[in-house]
Amino acid sequence: MAFISGTLLIDAPASALNNSGEPIPNARTANTSSVKFIRGKDGTYPYVSGQAQRYWLRNTLEKASGIRWESSPTYRGDKIAFTDANPILYWDDDLLGYMRAPGKKDYENIKNTPELTQQEEDAKGNPRTVTRVSPFRIGTLVSIAPVNITEDFGTMTRTENDPVPYEHQFYRAYMHTLFALDLAMAGTFTYSRRSGFQNLDSVRKELAEEHGLTKRDDLLAYQLPPTDRADRVRSLLLGLGELQGGAKQAIHYTDVSPAIAIFAVVRGGSNPFNYLFAESGGQVSVKLDVLQDAIADLVKHDLLLSPVCIGWKPGFIDEQRPSGDFGVEGAQIYIDTPRSAFAALADYITQNPNLMDE
Question: Is residue 84 part of a domain?
């Protein structure tokens, strides 16, 4: 199976991208806001959860004017929320997965909602759960080195009364994560009874037939045409290239689009682009020799299925940027800005839709 596998580096110069909801220990005020972090033996590592990054990506794709994206309607109950769970129509249900398992009360509320696809019922009239494992995967975005988390004291002073004090945390960090997209599963919707693979119930199988999807008995699945699947993947890649989001942007504005992104289409789900970043003296370093070794290993074992794309923002540690003679025998390497690099691979996949089933 083919995967888009890659790594992202984000520069967070003075940021609070994902808050914990917990009070700051030993705070001087009652109003506090703390950041999420991992406590290690060598210090604290700020992080952004995968859930938060997926939220950023969804919002980016929904709002981007130049990227086609079909968003699924969402139902919110008292203690539950879910999307329409219709990957045939909605691209986020396809590429980002879902679980629709309403309780009896919520099911009665949505049973005749026209915006939502209906759900198969069992013999007792209860809805059958539909689930889909996300073809797109992203790791925790975490600082590559331990940092000191700063506590900032402020006041709300827009009234004639005494100021209202508050405290919050922020940090300076280079943050790194891995990501992958299972190309075989993009646009392929299974109806196995296994948890995570009951993508389609009988209602959705009928929709698949109506929309002309190919039935794959060998996979217990219905499948969109390769060109349609490639178009959906293209949009997600373009979204990664211009990612927006993050908490406390009003006072700690941070560009969360990648400062560096390295990725390619490879055989197998093992990500070859780990261990490329290090930190020394407060500065990040990119281990280009390790990257060359990783690419050479892909070539040696016939695992590389596309150009290796290196996106690097102009002005970001320019002295480390790979020069024009950077290369590996047997591999095509594309170096540009992150936005252009993601667009280049997006074009490559739409021009070679056979990669979806490589």
Answer: yes
Asked if residue 337 and residue 252 are part of one domain, the reply reads yes
Burial class of 16 by CB neighbour count within 10 A (0 to 12, 13 to 18, 19+): buried
Same domain, 23 and 144: yes
Q: Which amino acid is at 290?
A: V
Element (H, E) at 166: strand 164-182
Residue count (the chain):
358
56: in domain:
no
Residues 84 and 19 reside in one and the same domain: no
User: What letter represents residue 346's amino acid?
Assistant: A
Run of H or E including 340 = helix 338-351
Biggest distance spanned by C-alpha atoms of the chain: 72
d(CA 263, CA 276): 12
User: How does pLDDT run across 219-238, given as a tens digit for each residue?
Assistant: 999 999 999 999 999 999 99
pLDDT classification of 317: cutoffs 50, 70, 90 = very high
Helix (H, G, I), strand (E, B) or coil at 246: coil
Residue range(s) defining the domain that contains residue 40:
1-49+140-182+227-357
What radius of gyration, in Å, describes the C-alpha atoms of the chain? Answer: 23
Residue 72 near residue 84, CB atoms below 8 Å: yes
- pTM of the complete model: 0.95
C-alpha triplet 59, 63, 67: angle, nearest 5°: 110
Whether residue 266 is found in the same domain as residue 167:
yes
d(CA 226, CA 217): 17
CA nearest neighbour of 6 among 213, 231, 261, 222: 261
What is the count of structural domains for the chain? Answer: 2
Strands 32-33 and 164-182 turn out to be parallel
Tokens of 66: 């130049």
- Please check whether residues 20 and 75 belong to one and the same domain: no
CB atoms < 10 A from the CB of 250, how many? 6
Task: Output the six-digit token pair for 21.
Answer: 């909801």
What was the pLDDT predicted at 112?
A: 76
- For residues 158 and 242, membership in a common domain is answered with yes
